[in-house]
Specification:
2 domains, flat, two-stranded antiparallel sheet, alpha+beta, 13 helices, 4-stranded antiparallel sheet, disordered N terminus, Chitinase A, domain 3, 6 strands, disordered C terminus
Length: 345
């Protein structure tokens, strides 16, 4: 397995998104409404004809019921296995993962926009990340690397841990030199805001809506290539441009230069250890199958009885609410009914 690939594999394989859980909760809520006698309440009225909530819920269950139920069962299985293994995931670790994602966005506003476009909240993201991190911890809990193994893994992947000279900057892209000069003139005015000028002049589809901000990028990976030479000797706070490229004219503002760093095993130990363990983790499909076979799962709803094939054999149902299920009476065990009382007494 390629180092670092485990996380991507798990993120793709674990289809337990909060959207599904939210949908399941919504379906269950609607079912409660139906049970309490409100099933004929319209969910919509089209040209005078009602689409009832009962019809609506039926279609939802038909389309997503099996998928959502399977996802909810797997989520509970994973949570239970994590607790049973005695593993602990701290809020600090979750917060660090969220921060890592935020740092990849051009700006805080871009991060918020991404969440909104994905239909999730920061709490949804936190719960999804926590689940994914628990799966990784379960998949790697038995991997205990020796110092020699870490040293060898580090030497084999040393280039991954070195950090080249990087730059954080904002850009304005214009179709012609005249517009670039106008943008540069506007930026040179006292109190000018780069974000505001970018919103006025830039045609860059990737950065205009974020005030022109680019992701932190190694200078030797800047594109278009014409930007590399201009940026390589620039200082923090400097305005550059207009710079001609095949795709248009650029105006740049250098916000931060991050120096190159040569890693050592000690400086990169946390990342090296994480990637070493990931390279030797239990494959997700195998882990999921193992957890499913160890769990006590009974599919009660006959509509989803086919899901039982994913789990171990039939299990006894636990007692809920302190009440026992009534015993099953068969013809062989049924007692004869008592004779009717004498009507004369």
């Amino acid at each position: 397995m390629v180092p670092g690939a485990l996380t991507k594999e798990l993120k793709l394989a674990v289809s337990l998104s909060m959207k599904q859980i939210g949908l399941a909760i919504f379906i269950l809520g609607c079912i409660l409404i139906v049970i309490t006698g409100c099933g004929e309440k319209p969910a919509a009225v089209v040209n005078g004809d009602r689409i009832t909530e009962e019809e609506f819920v039926g279609k939802l269950k038909e389309a997503f019921g099996e998928q959502v139920l399977l996802a909810m069962i797997d989520r509970q299985i994973i949570e239970a296995a994590f607790e049973k293994a005695g593993l602990v995931l701290s809020e600090q670790d979750i917060a660090a993962s969220i921060q890592e994602i935020q740092d990849r966005a051009p700006s805080p506003a871009a991060f918020e926009e991404y969440l909104a476009a994905s239909g999730v909240t920061i709490e949804d993201l936190r719960e999804d990340l926590a689940l994914q991190m628990k799966i990784i911890m379960l998949a790697t809990k038995d991997v205990v690397p020796t110092e020699e193994q870490l040293e060898q893994f580090y030497q084999e992947n040393k280039a991954r841990y070195d950090k080249p000279l990087r730059v954080k900057m904002s850009e304005i892209l214009t179709p012609g030199k005249l517009q670039a000069e106008q943008a540069l003139g506007a930026l040179n005015k006292e109190g000018a805001s780069f974000a505001a000028v970018a919103g006025q002049f830039s045609v860059s589809p990737g950065t205009r809506q974020y005030g022109g901000q680019r992701l932190i990028t190694p200078i030797d990976q800047l594109f278009p290539m014409e930007l590399r030479e201009a940026v390589s000797g620039a200082e923090e706070g400097e305005l550059l441009g207009p710079i001609e490229t095949p795709g248009g004219w650029y105006v740049l503002q250098i916000e931060q230069r991050l120096p190159a760093e040569t890693a050592t095993l000690e400086s990169a130990r946390e990342q090296v250890t994480k990637e070493f363990k990931g390279s030797r983790a239990v494959p997700f499909d195998m882990l999921r199958q193992q957890l499913r076979q160890e769990a006590v799962v009974k599919i009660v709803d006959p509509e989803y009885s086919e899901l039982a094939r994913n789990y171990a054999g039939p299990q006894e149902l636990p007692e809920f609410g302190g009440e026992q299920s009534p015993p099953v009476i068969t013809p062989e065990t049924a007692q004869p009914a008592p004779p009717p009382a004498d009507q004369g007494e």
